[in-house]
Amino acid sequence: MRTKAHVPYLFLTPAIVLFAVFTVYPIVYSFLLSFQTSVGGEMAFAGLANYRRLAGDDIFLKALANTFILLAVQVPVMLTLALVLASLLHSVQRGRGFFRVSFFMPAVTSLVAYSIVFSILLAGDGVINQLLQALGLKGVPWLSHPVWAKVALMLAMTWRWTGYNMIIYLAAMQNIPEHLYEAASLDGAGKIRQFFSVTIPQLKPIILFTAILSTIGTLQLFDEPYTLTKGGPSDATLTIGMYLYQTGFRYFDFGYASTLAYVIVVLIAGLSFIQFRLTGRE
Amino acid sequence: MSKVWKLAVLLLALSLVLAACGGGGDNAQGATSTGSSQNGSSSSSPSSDGKDAVELTAWAWNVNVGALNEAIAMYQKDHPHVSLKVEDIGRLDVYDKLSTGLAAGGAGLPDIVLVEDDRIHGYLDAFPNGFANLSELGFDEYAHLFPDFKKGLTSLDGVFYAFPFDSGPTGMFYRRDLFEQAGVDPEAIETWDDFFAAAQDIKKATGAYAFPADKFKDDANFRMMMNQLGVYYFDENGNIDFNNPKVVQALSMLKKFGDADLVKDVNGWDGTVSATIDGSVATIPFGAWYYGTIIDQAKDTEGKWGVFLLPAFEKGGNRAANLGGSSWMIPASSKNKEEAYKFMLYFSTTPEVQIMAMEKYGLFPSLSTAYDSPLFESEVPFFGGQKIWQLFTDEMPDIPTPYYTKDYAIAMDEAVKAQADIFNGRDPAEALAEAAERLAGRTGREVNRY
Fold first, then answer.
1. B265: nearest CA in chain A?
2. Subunit contact A17:B15, Cβ cutoff 8 A
3. What ipTM was estimated for this complex?
4. Which of B101, B110, B140, B345 is most buried, by the most CB atoms less than 10 A from its CB?
5. A55-279: which CATH topology?
C-alpha cells in the first residue's frame, strides 16, 4: 500500500497555518510597517525616513552601545565559566546529578521572577548591601550607578544562563572519544593541557553554537533590564529590545519600532555570519 | 479523495479554532460580573423597563473595579435593562490590551475603559478615531461641574473624550509620632526650606528619611513640585520648558534633599509602600488617593498619620498641586456607545456615586457638587481626627493646569533621566538642558531659552 503524495502535507497543515498566521504574517507586516509612519492616526508610507532617523537617534545609539558592551563582556565570561564548570563536572565521579541539577536550576526559573528577586537582593538597602555593610564594606549602588547597573545586569544574566550553556557543553564532552585523552596523556599532557588541546578543539562547533545563541539572546535582551532597572539610570542599561518596546507600546510609534526590530534582525544575521567566518567552518 | 478533503478541512478548522482560543482566551479571566441578579432578568430577553437588555463591558484595575460594580448596582434601580461586566485587569495590562486593540481597529475592546489622565492625550494622538467623541453625545453641558485642570486633561481642542473621575490633590502624608519624637511642629512648616531644616532634625532624632523617591525610575516628587510652581514639562504652546528657572528650582530642591541624604531610594510602588509601613520615611508626598493605600496596608499605624499641604517654595507661595487621577473613556468601536455614555454620565455626575467611591475606595472626586457632602467635613480617626478631606477639597481650586501633550510620556522619560543624573551628582540646570535637547530631538518641539 502506497501513501498518496499529498497526505504528508495534510498532516502538516495545522502547523503551517499556525506558523503562517502567528509568525510569517507578523514578520512580513512589521517589515512593511518599518517603512511607515503615523500621520494623524493612519499609517502612511514614509520611505526610508525611519531608517534615516536611526543615524541621528542618540538614544538608539546609546542602546546599541549598551547592548554591545553587554555582549562583549558578559557572553565571553559566561561561556568561559560554563566551559570550566562543564569540564569540572565531567570529571567529577560522585554527586554528578546533584551538581548538574543545581547549576541548571536557574535556567528553568521564569525570566521575570528571577529578575524581581535580583532587584530585591540588589536594592540600595537590599540583602547584598546589608551583607557588605556587615562585613565593614561600603554598600554598592547596584541599580542606580551607570556602571554598577550594567554589572548588576551581567551578574543576573550570568546566573541565569551559565547552567544552560554548561549542560550543552557537558553533553558534547561525553561525545569526545576517550582515546584522544588516552593518546594525549601518553604524550605526557596534563589535565590542563588536555583541556586546551583536546577538549576545546573538539567542542569548537558547540562553542560556536552557544556563542550564536547567546549573541541572539543578548541582542533581544528585554526582561532583565525591564524588571531590574527599567533601562536606567539615565539609559545606562537601555537595550535595543527595551527601546523597541518603549517606542512601540509606550509611545505608539509602531513604524519606528518595526524599524528597530529589523535592525536587530540585521545585527543578528551579521554577527552570526562573522562568528561562522572567524571559526572557519561552513 | 473526498475523504482526504474532509480531513483537510477538519484540520484547517481545528487549527483556526486553536488560533482563536490563543487570541481571546484570556479575555474571560478575572471577569467579575455584577449582574442582572437584581432584576432577575436574563440578558437576552427584554427586562422590566421594557427595553432590550444590554450588557456593557469595562476594563479597570484595583479599587476602581469595586467602585464601578457598586455604581452599576445603583444605576440598575432605574435602568434594570443595563448590566455591566467589569474585568479586573492590572493597570499596565489594560494599557497593553488597549493599545493592541486600538491598533487592530478596535477589535476586542470593551465599552468602557479606565485611563490615567496623563495617558489620555497620548492615546488621542496615536488613535484620533479610537475613542467616542463625548461632546457630540452631549457632555459639554456638564463640563462646568469639574475643575479646569481636569477639563484640560480629558479634552483635546475643546472636544471631550473622557469622563473625569478621580483627582489627586497632593499632600504630605506624615507620621505624627516621628514628628513629635523630633519635636517638629508640622503646622510651622511653610516652605521647602522649613521642611529641609525639620527633616534634618527628624533624621537625627529618629533615623527616618524625609520622603521616599524612586530616584532612577520615577519623578513623582518632581512633577508635584513643578505643578505647584505653575510649570511643567511643556508650556501652554507645547514648547519644551525644561530650562524654565522654576523647573530648575524644583529639581534643585530635590537635589538639596538628596545631597543631605534625606531621600530614601525606593524601588517602585512596592518600595514606597514598604517605606510607608515600616516607618523609614517621615512623610510621603503623594495624591489624595494614597489615603486608601495607607489605611489598607499600614493598619497598625491607625491614628499616627496626618496630612499637610506641600510646602511652598517661598513664604506665601502656592501649596496646591495634583498628582495622578484617572478618567473613563469609551472606545469608538463600542456597539453600545449610547448606553455606555448614559451610564458613565450617571457615574461621573452623580454626587452619591462619587461619594461612595471616595468613602469606600478612597478615590477623591473631581465632581464639584460632591464636595457638599458632610463627609468632606468629617474627622478621620485614622489620621488622628484631622479633617483631611476638607484640606484636599480646599486645595482643588488652586491647582494650576499642567500642560500635558501627546509627548508627555517621552518628556517624562527624559525628566526621569535628568533626575537620575542629579542624584548621581550632576548640576540640575545642566542635566535639564541636556534632557531638553534630547527631548527636542525626539519630538521635534522647540526648546524655550531663558
1. A124
2. yes
3. 0.74
4. B110
5. MetI-like fold (1.10.3720)
